[in-house]
Amino acid sequence: MAKAADTPVTPDITFKDAARGVLLAHYHKMMDNLPGTRAGEDIEALHDMRVGSRRLRAALSVFAKVFSKAEYQTLDKQVSDITDALGAVRDLDVQMDYLRGVRDPLPPNEAYGVSRLIEGLSKDRDKNRKKLVKALDKLEKEKFGPRFVKTLDRAVPPPKDAERPTKTDKADKNKKGGR
Fold it and tell me: The CATH number of the domain where 134 resides is what?
């Protein structure tokens, strides 16, 4: 999971550098789970992709000022759409899992009704899964991955070398009379 400890944010880096590190961490968390989500064989891939998309969306909101208004709105809409599609399927997975736990210890005559409810939810999940696959296809067709990175590179250029100065380094240099 891409948590605060996994993102390169320290007190001495600039807002833009923090934006770049956090946004890329959550972008990768989301996109690294795309193949497993598309395959549909592991609900954890879908869960992890949804977590990544929700965190990416939150990070976009925090760091919106590094983008132009139009770039931010485009990215936010794309991430929002995929988050919604992921959520529709994930919520049904969670509901069905819970109901299976409720059903299993019940006597057969009571379990029947819960099983029918699970069957209905499963049909809804299948419909939402088709919508999710279409949303994933749209992401790929629109080249979301390369466009996201390119947009981020325009807003916050990647460091030219590993020794990129921090706010503290710049302040120290200015105190010593350098520019």
Answer: 1.40.20.10
> Dihedral sign, CA of 53, 151, 81, 44?
negative
Measuring CA to CA, which residue among 46, 66, 52 is closest to residue 2? 52
8 A C-beta contact, residue 89 and residue 129: yes
Does residue 136 fall inside a structural domain?
yes
- Domain enclosing residue 113, as ranges: 14-158
| Spatial separation of the C-alpha atoms in residues 111 and 141, rounded to whole Å | 44
Burial of 49 (0-12, 13-18, 19+ CB in 10 A): buried
Query: Per the structure, how many domains does the chain have?
Result: 1
CA dist., res. 119 & res. 162, Å (int): 54
Q: What pLDDT, on a 0 to 100 scale, did the predictor assign at position 11?
A: 86
* 170 has pLDDT over 80: no
